[in-house]
Design brief:
The protein is α/β, with parallel strands linked by helices and 325 residues long. It has three domains: 44 residues, 434 Repressor (Amino-terminal Domain), CATH 1.10.260; 121 residues, Rossmann fold; 133 residues, Rossmann fold, CATH 3.40.50. It contains twelve helices and twelve strands. Helix 11 links the parallel strand 8 and strand 9. Helix 1 packs across helix 2 and helix 1 packs across helix 3. It is elongated. It starts with a helix and ends in a 5-residue tail after the last strand.
Length: 325
């Protein structure tokens, strides 16, 4: 296996020069830089990233902790985070917490021990002090945990307003709202706040159904939607706080012999790619998932480089109407 000394000898430069090329420090002519890289490739030299990270006190790795990469929103978010991280020279270490506090703590401590440059938190089951003890730049998604830790969220209340107002305007007389467990301290709960405010304002009969604490457990969706339709057969509008819940609602309504949108109008949330693949195509509140991913990486970079940054980052949403309404 080739060493840095072998590279220096064959390239005709000093070991210090090779080190400067690898760490992008000091002035190096383009010709010398090119020669060093060509020699590294010729010899098959692989620099020791761990040693380099200790020297630089930077790992160029960002940890991303999410509930589950199988969930469409988080899989798309992870894709965008990785893309923009790569543009800034970072690699991404992906961790699935499955909303397990023990597992999330293990991952958080692992990332801290390995000196990652920052952590993007898309899963939030730990107490705030656990995040403060990380001592690395942190960005949270859809949860404000500290006045000094930046967070990113879409305009959740506005999204809930847009969805509920559309169902009311379409003439729905009894609207069901299916949401995550509201005991979780998430900014996404504002979607449910908006739903209550709008149906109350218009005097529309309504029912709110919450998932259990494992809000991303898809096995429960069929069960709670089936029970909803059995107990409230006159429901003619459904606002779900994710596209995947809305997709299950479409399936269960069709199983119950209901025609969409004639008998039941359905709106999801996120507008993941799959929303337009369904039949009928799903009306949804579009979150700017790509911008959330880009901004998360940008906020990590700004913290690392000591640049000013906003702690509160609210992004706009929009209604995308399709065939389910």
């Amino acid at each position: 296996m080739a060493t840095i000394n072998d590279v220096a000898l064959k390239a005709g430069v000093s070991v210090t020069t090779v080190s400067r090329v690898l760490n992008n420090r000091g002035y190096i002519s383009e010709a010398t830089r090119k020669k060093v890289y060509e020699t590294m490739e010729e010899l098959g030299y692989q620099p020791n990233e761990i040693a380099r990270s200790l020297l630089r006190k930077q790992s160029h790795i960002i940890g991303l902790i999410i509930p589950s990469v199988s969930h469409p929103f988080f899989s798309e978010l992870a894709r965008h985070v990785e893309y923009y991280a790569y543009q800034y020279g970072f690699k991404v270490l992906l961790c699935n917490s499955h909303l397990d506090p023990g597992k999330e703590k293990v991952y958080t401590e692992m990332l801290r021990r390995n000196r990652v440059d920052g952590i993007i938190m898309g899963s939030h089951t730990l107490e705030v002090d656990e995040y403060r003890n990380v001592h690395s730049p942190i960005v949270t998604i859809d949860r404000k945990i500290d006045d000094e830790i930046p967070f990113i969220s879409s305009e959740n209340y506005r999204g809930g307003e847009l969805a509920t107002e559309l169902l009311v305007s379409k003439g729905c007389r009894k609207i069901a709202h299916i949401c995550g467990n509201l005991e979780l301290n998430l900014l996404a709960n504002q979607r449910s706040d908006a739903f209550r405010d709008v149906v109350t304002k218009h005097g529309v009969e309504h029912v709110i159904i919450q998932t259990d604490m494992n809000v991303f457990d898809q096995e429960q969706y069929e069960r709670i939607i089936r029970r909803l339709l059995e107990e409230h057969p006159n429901v003619d509008g459904i606002f779900a706080t994710s596209d995947i819940i809305a997709a299950f609602a479409v399936k269960e309504c069709m199983k119950a012999g209901k025609t969409i949108p004639r008998d039941v109008r359905i709106i999801g949330y996120d507008d993941v790619n799959a929303a337009s693949w369904l039949t009928p195509e799903l009306t949804s509140i579009k979150q700017p998932i790509e911008e959330i991913g880009r901004l998360a990486v940008e906020l990590i970079r700004k913290q690392l480089e000591g640049e000013p940054f906003e702690t509160e980052n609210l992004l706009p949403v929009e209604l995308v109407e399709r065939q389910t309404t």
